[in-house]
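REQUEST ID: PR-0412
SUBMITTED BY: lab tech R.K.
PRIORITY: routine
TASK: structure prediction, single protein chain
INPUT:
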Amino acid sequence: MTGLTHMAGGLLAGAAMGGDYRIAIAALAALVPDWLQINVPGGNSLAHGLFGHRGISHWLITAVGVAAWVRLISPGLAVYVLAGWGSHIILDVLSNGAPALWPLPRITLARIKSGGVLDAIIGGQLLTLAVVILLVRLLR
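STATUS: complete
OUTPUT:
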């Protein structure tokens, strides 16, 4: 999935959890798994060599570990980090798979082409649902 689809998934996860400023944390956390593999100097080669594409940053145990670390610093944000990061992993399971339950084998539920039409449709639907949830909360 593209970064925009991942961000929309994070927004939806954050909106479903509360709908305040912390949805931005979930949206940003949804981008971190790919960001770590692409932008950490030497990290992409090392991670790819050890774990393949969508490696350690795409494990649910890594998401839980990061959320636990965030909880030490800011308990109210940890669940949003976990929701956003988790949404990323779920979306990648739909896009040629991810090793979400490592050390178990890679999970692949679909083969949606990243950047393709279906990816864009899914991203649009995720964003629409997030906006609807936020508007319903706002109008109550």
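NOTES: Helices lie at 3-17, 23-29, 32-39, 43-51, 60-73, 75-93, 117-139.
REVIEWED BY: pending
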